[in-house]
Description:
It is a single chain. This protein is α+β, with helices and mostly antiparallel strands. The chain folds into four domains: 8-183, Glutaredoxin (3-Layer(aba) Sandwich), CATH 3.40.30; 193-340 and 432-619, Glycosyltransferase; 347-428, no CATH class; 623-701. A five-stranded mixed β-sheet has the order 1-3-2-4-5, sandwiched between helices. The protein has a four-stranded mixed β-sheet with strand order 17-16-18-19, sandwiched between helices.
Amino acid sequence: MDTDAPDKLSLFMSTAGLAEAASSYLRTAALEPVHWHPWHDSVTAMARSAGRPVLLSIGHEGSAGCVRMSKESYGQSSVAALLNTDFFCIKVDRDEYPDVARTYQFALTVLNREAPGMPVTVFLDPDTLLPFFGGGYFPPGARDGLPGFSDLLLRVTETFRNEREAVQKQCAELGKRLRTLATESEETKTLAADPLLAAAREQLEALHDATEGGFGTGAKFPLPTWTERLLLGWARRRGTPNPDRNGLELVMHTLTRMARGGIRDHLGGGFFRYALDRKWSAPVFQKSLVDNAQLLGLYVDAYAVSRDRLFREVIDGTVNWVLDALREPEGVAAGGLVAGERPAEDGAAYFTWRRDAVRRLLDEDEYLVVETLYGLDKPANHGARWLLYRRDAWRAVVERLSLEPDTADALLASGRARLLTERNQRPAPLRSQVLNAGSNGLAIGALSRAGLVCQEPTWLDAATRAADAIHGLLWHDGRLHGSRIGSERGPLGTLDDHALLLHGLLGLLSARWREQDARLALDLAETLASGFADPATGTFLLRHRDQPRLVTELHPMLDEALPAGNGSAALSLLKAGQLFGRPDLAAVAERALRASATGIAANPVGHASLLTALEFSRTSVACIVLRGPEQEIAPWVAAAREGFDPWRPIYVIPWGAYRTLPRHLPRLVRADLQGAPCAWWCSADNAEGPITTLEAFRARLGA
């Protein structure tokens, strides 16, 4: 094959493949003069036979670095000429192939001892597709210690041609190191939870910002798994001789500061991805479903404990944003709102205000309330404009203005409604076109919990509709696909997709039992146990075992934007084992926890979701299954759900449901029992019951 120019078949597949791709990120790349190929088995085979180094570029819609490299380098004919002559170029949408993105990010981290951001720019040996050089964003000319991209291409080409043997040796060494990392495991026979939980608790308090809430004193990320860890730790020790009241105070302090701060959209609802400053006042103007679903669940639990008015306001706003801004006609939610080419400037134009514009829109009384609450009487906080966030507690504002609470509430509501109506007329941030199974699983779980705690049945309806949409759009021939872009299903789902969708369905089943959800939940649990659990290490793989191997196999342990896949899978399987009476599912989860012990001990706070699964395995004795006529069972349900107990899942299964029941529940019961409520305590191994009187049930709850 001619290695000096792309062959005609390769060129046809590149231009046609990207131009017709479902991904708008890939379609945009098709407009560049570079001869990009989409990621596909046939394309990687072509890359191996081409004999040229492979440039693998991984990015996603809305990434500022990706946009800059496209304009500065890939869009330039001189750069394209170098790439088209000397390289085989592959473009990957991170949202379509998250497993490919994470695998090569990890490989580069091992190679460079530094994790790349977005985009991922990596040069691969064509024989092995292992990286021999790479990084993240590269500028067009040398800057800030980074080489200019054109110069880098020339150096890579020269190295590949003149030092091919050294390149292959380096790749072989990297491959050996990756294989070692992929098979490292120290499964312990016993796993002591208390020392690990105590170490994480100590770390979190040391990292907590006592002044502004959150963790650290620089840029602030919400880090919901860390705050959840504190809340669950408090719940476990509540009622003991040594309760963790300070842990609860850290939670409430952080959530209050975030709720008042600029990281929350006080008009449209929901949270931005992170803040650039310690005080949560300078956000990056992007919103994601992943972040908001996790934060929604966290605020719902905090509201269940505190009944704080501010937290309920956050819950209402976040739910409304998810349903209004992200929900597709089928009921499933898009991935979030992404910025344009200049995220900070574009976001500021949409989300910030001139004071005189606010004054013109509101009447005098409305403006006085808004001005006082959001600091419009103070200097501008975003250039010459104001980002609306709260300076004080609402009660303090009402007292300062000498208003009746009901009057103040009405003025604030009407003022915000006018502002939101005006803001909706502005050019809005783009909405992601990717529908993801895992993030929708998080949303289904959070909406279900919010509907229960806040007694909002329409939110449960939304969760149910989303579950039906995922089942219809992404479940095909007994397999879960991870995403849908446009009208096309994406590749098979990852560990995160399976574990988080199972998590969401278990939450939905706890709020509203449906046979189709129970069946899908059990199918997902069995797939996790049989297809993702690694027999060699005991932990869970990122990719299903029957998928073609990439350059290494990942076992996600550390929490990132998503909870770690191993933590989510272990927790979901423990709960599924209880519900369905499947000790085999619980055993797979327990083995994964034992195999993760060394990593947890080395960095407890980085493994917060695995610690949550470990805490559940040691604290949750059983779930409660209630059965009976709907009206008669209502006081039983109310008694079971009173207070905040995350260690005791509750499921209400009507008598008419008989197919996908917990294995150890009797399929046939006496006729007199079917006319009255009864309860079972179900572990993975057995069921205790039935308890047939409300008095006995209350006594068992308090035992």
